[in-house]
Design a protein that fits this description.
about 15% strand; about 375 residues; single chain; 10 helices; alpha+beta
């Protein structure tokens, strides 16, 4: 137990060191890019704030690489100090030397998904909002086609189909809005055109609005009404709209199940969110696989093989597995693979591959 704790502590220390190095490296690179884009618009302090808000998402995506390098670093250190040789001479196998680091990895993976993931989704949203404010532009990031944005809301009173030419980042403001309201029985009720629509307080506040009643036997144009402001009730929230048309990675892990159910109830496809949700649950396993692969190529004695080549092979194999996992996720999002298979098969296959390499090295 003492030896497991020792190996776990060494791995945790190396992980913290590598994580800090990656953070500083990515921070400096991103800071240069932000300065080029905003140095003439905002102060240096605001540029630093933008960089700090953007860094968590990049670090989160690079966590598999950080895990591989941490595992490689700790086992190279243990090999050069002959601590692994001494451990093996006491009758302990390579797998027993992995128990401590793997337990640390599982704990770190759980914390990444349950704690760091919500932080990343929040900082990413803040970053994009601040970036839009500083650049003084409204980006059409929710558009899903050449005809603009389409979304639908519904309740017990009927359905409303909304089309907009563009929207701001979080979907709280739409521009060039057309709304078509339908009765619960399916028949049309009215058509609304507005210059803009702002989502707040449980409803859409429409500016410069014209309303046409769509009732049989009534001339819609003659009975049309104009309003400076008009409120249309809505069950949607800003987060829900962003989740529907934005990247699932911008949604907190804890909010994903609720969002998936709401998407399905509103008639939207939630497949991308389901794939991402299962991928996040399986993330700790994928990180475990990265640690096993990093250890498999570097656990031998430093005089037996080139450690540099081992680290390089571990990183290249990690990149290959990362690519395969992402390819499987794309197939799942397109409906060509089952969600569970795409999310769980790559981590499990990576673990088996790493164990195979480790056992072969152990026998050799």
């Amino acid at each position: 137990m003492t030896l497991h704790f020792y190996f776990a502590r060494r791995f945790a220390i190396f992980f913290i060191r590598v994580f800090v190095l990656f953070f500083l490296f990515l921070f400096l690179i991103d800071l240069v890019g932000q300065l080029r884009s905003f140095s003439s618009i905002i102060s240096f302090r605001q540029v630093v704030t933008l960089t700090l808000l953007n860094n968590p998402e990049v670090l989160y995506q690079m966590m598999p690489l950080i895990m591989i390098i941490s595992a490689a670093a700790v086992y190279i250190s243990l090999s050069r100090s002959n601590e692994l040789v001494i451990s093996r001479n006491t009758g302990r196998s390579s797998m027993q030397a992995l128990i401590g680091p793997l337990l640390v990895t599982i704990c770190l993976g759980g914390m990444l998904v349950t704690v760091f993931n919500p932080i990343v989704s929040t900082t990413s949203a803040l970053y994009l909002n601040l970036k839009d404010n500083y650049s003084n532009q409204k980006r059409s990031v929710i558009s899903i086609g050449a005809e603009g944005l389409w979304l639908r809301q519904g309740d017990e009173n009927g359905q409303t189909v909304i089309r907009a030419e563009r929207a701001n980042f979080d979907g709280s403001v739409l521009y060039g809005v057309s709304m078509f309201e339908y009765h619960s029985s399916g028949g049309p009720r009215r058509r609304i055109e507005a210059k803009s629509a702002s989502l707040q307080g449980g409803g859409w506040w429409l500016n410069k609005t014209k309303v046409w009643p769509l009732i049989a036997g009534i001339n819609a144009e003659e009975n049309a009404q104009k309003h400076e402001w008009l409120r249309v009730p809505s069950s949607l929230t800003t987060d829900q709209i962003r989740d529907r048309f934005g990247k699932p990675s911008t949604v907190s892990f804890w909010a994903l199940p609720v969002m998936i159910n709401q998407l399905k109830s509103a008639g939207f496809s939630a497949r991308r969110h389901e794939v991402w949700y299962q991928t996040e649950i399986a993330r700790p396993l994928f990180l475990v696989a990265m640690v096993i692969i990093g250890a498999a190529f570097t656990m031998g004695h430093s005089r037996q093989r080139s450690m540099g080549l081992g680290v390089l092979m571990a990183i290249l194999l990690g990149f290959g597995l990362f690519y395969v996992r992402n390819f499987a996720l794309i197939l799942a999002e397109n409906g060509q693979l089952p969600v569970m298979l795409a999310a769980w098969a790559p981590p499990l296959a990576a673990i088996l591959l790493g164990l195979g390499i480790l056992f072969q090295a152990e026998e050799g």
